[in-house]
Amino acid sequence: MTDHRTHRRVFSGIQPSGVPTLGNYLGAIRNWVRLQDDHECIFCVVDLHAITVWQEPRQLAAQTREMAASLIACGIDPAGQILFPQSAVRAHAQLAWIFNCVARLGWLNRMTQFKDKAGKDRENASAGLYVYPSLMAADILAYHATRVPVGDDQKQHLEFANDIAQKFNHDYDVDFFPPIEPLIMGPAARVMSLRDGAKKMSKSDPSDQSRINLTDDADTVALKIRRAKTDPHPLPSEPAGLEGRPEARNLVGIYAALADLPPETVLAEHGGKGFGAFKEALAELLVAHLAPIAAETRRLLADPAAIDAVLRQGAARAAAIADPITAEAERLVGFLALGG
Ligand code: TRP
Which of 130, 242, 265, 287 is the most exposed place for a label (fewest CB within 10 A)? Predict the structure, then answer.
């Protein structure tokens, strides 16, 4: 079960938020696409996690499909890798239950994401939101995946997953679940709102002007960039000059990430210019990158049945890995194996 290929197995999950933003693309998806070259990858649209907060049922289904289509349009290869919706593989929920019984309340109480997401009205948060980290641990460990690309904000969840793996191994006196290695994706790719350089670019921001969606057409992209908040000063010629200028830093960061250049190089070229010229160059670069993705996403979404067929195949291949691992965990726990 653990030859050296599985040892490098990558697992990652993304919320079914519909068509992703530029932030999702530069922060996560583009890294996934790159990992495919030398890893066996399993990519999951995490609809079980999504319902830890209220989701309109019809929208959830549509958004799960949209996310999958966008991932494929961005270059995730659903034939070479595995792409599926979490709810389609039962092992996730089954293993998560066992992990709920391994996790300690004290560990869950320390999770900062629960505190952030539950907010002030904690009594009214779902129990699912509280045990979100157990399900995330199950996502990864059901595949014995050892490499997990995530943003900075998910690091605590991976430590939690490692604690679960260790405690399970210890309690049942086995060496069954491997340690997980986070592949933290650089903070350079943290994309902020176009209206407020202190806020993350997000699907949930009420203003569509605050984000670039991967299906925005060329005119929309250009307009959003032209209207993006900036300050009255010209661009600095080196990164130190971005200090205290979050909006300028964000636009330079986006440019650098898309052009695959260090910010120094971008500023060496554009420093001293006003934002007008820079924004034009940035819009052009964005459109060059995003137009083909938008077109491909639209083409895929025109045939929902074909996307579902791809996801069904992905789920079958995922289950073929996760089911035996989960069955073995159940046997170790002492569940009666009735076969069949
Ligand atoms: N919690 C992750 C996020 O919000 C999504 C996720 C769910 C995930 N399961 C995962 C990420 C397993 C990596 C591995 O971004």
Answer: 265
